[in-house]
Each structure stands twice: as structure tokens, then as C-alpha cells.
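SUBJECT: protein chain
CONTENTS: sequence, C-alpha cells:
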Amino acid sequence: MDVDYITVEKEASAEFIERKSRFIGYVKPVSTEEEARDFIALVNSNHREATHNVPAYVLLNNNIQRCSDDGEPSGTAGVPVLEVILKSGVKDVCVVVTRYFGGVLLGTGGLVRAYSHASKLALEAGGIITMAKCAVLQVEAEYSYYERLSKLLAQSGANIEDCVFSDNVKIIFSVREQEVDAISNKLTEMSNGRFVPVKTGEKYAKVQK
């Protein structure tokens, strides 16, 4: 699997009131069903008094899709949440919409719209990012070059994963495979051949569109 995909950048939440019912949309990036179930359980635990906690998740691996109405009328909650995820194109994500009933019935259409809206707000709060198969590299240099190196890597679309400070500074970064040669050439040119990045592995990482 070497295709790019989009997901959410971070765990987040957003809420609104619809005819006295409080809807809270929670979102978290996940990569396994276990992670999704753990997140759902956490939201349930934090909102034991809620009328409903409606979950849905989509995983890239095996294209797994799950949802539940959690007691709402069939098709009015879980499916709308799942459909928002699918229409957005986001993968490896779990959304849970919590509802506190406010005493006014929303009807079938009202429920669908409310759960859909809460899901959209949650995804927006989580931030949409592109993930791609990247090479992980490291380059070691004197401290006096740290800011210049960091700036060059950022301008070249690389994502700095970590920095190790000892006698010198070691910068660990990820970049699309097809951009490795270009960045290597820039580093070599900047340092007159002294800074040569070494590939240490591969991973899916956030990239610029």
C-alpha cells in the first residue's frame, strides 16, 4: 500500500445546540479497530449521562467501516456520521457524536441533519492532512547550521520528526521518496559535500499537498 490518503491531524471536538439538544462531535486519528474501540469507550465513559453516544469509524487497512445508532431510530445517527466521513474521503479516523436530549423531538430528518453537522464540525476541528509513504532520513551537522538546515528542510516540504542534541545536532526528518534526491542535493550543496543524509527507514507521514 503506497497510496496517499487523507486523515485528521489531531484529536478534537466541537459542539452545537439544536432545539435544546446538545450535540458534541469528537474525532481522533486511529489506525486499528482496537484504537477506535478504545476511543469510543473513553467517550462513553466521559459521557455516561448522555442520551446517546453515536460512533463511526473508517480504517484504511481492509477498508473497514463501522457505525452504530446507539439507540437512536435506525439510520438516523450512525449512518449519517459514517456518510460524512466517507464523503470527506478521510481514512483512519473515528468520530463519536454525543447527544444530550433537550426535551424537544427532532424527527427523522432533524436527527440526520444534526448528527451530520456534528460530524462535519468534528472533522474540521481535527484538521485534514495528507499522508504519504515517506523515507525517513537523518543528517548530522554543527550547531551553527541548525537553523539553516531546519529552514531548508521545511521549505523543501520535509517534516522534521526529531532532533538529537549532543556534540553535534542530528536532525531526523521524513520526505516523499521521490523528493529524497532533490533534498540530498540541496544539503550537499549548502555544506560543500559535508552533510549527507542517511536513510534509516520508511513510514507514512504528513506531507504538503
Q: What stands out?
A: The beta strands are 5-8, 12-18, 21-29, 52-59, 64-67, 93-100, 128-141, 159-165, 169-176, 198-207. The first strand starts at residue 5 and ends at 8. The domain at 5-126 is CATH 3.30.230.30 (Ribosomal Protein S5; domain 2).
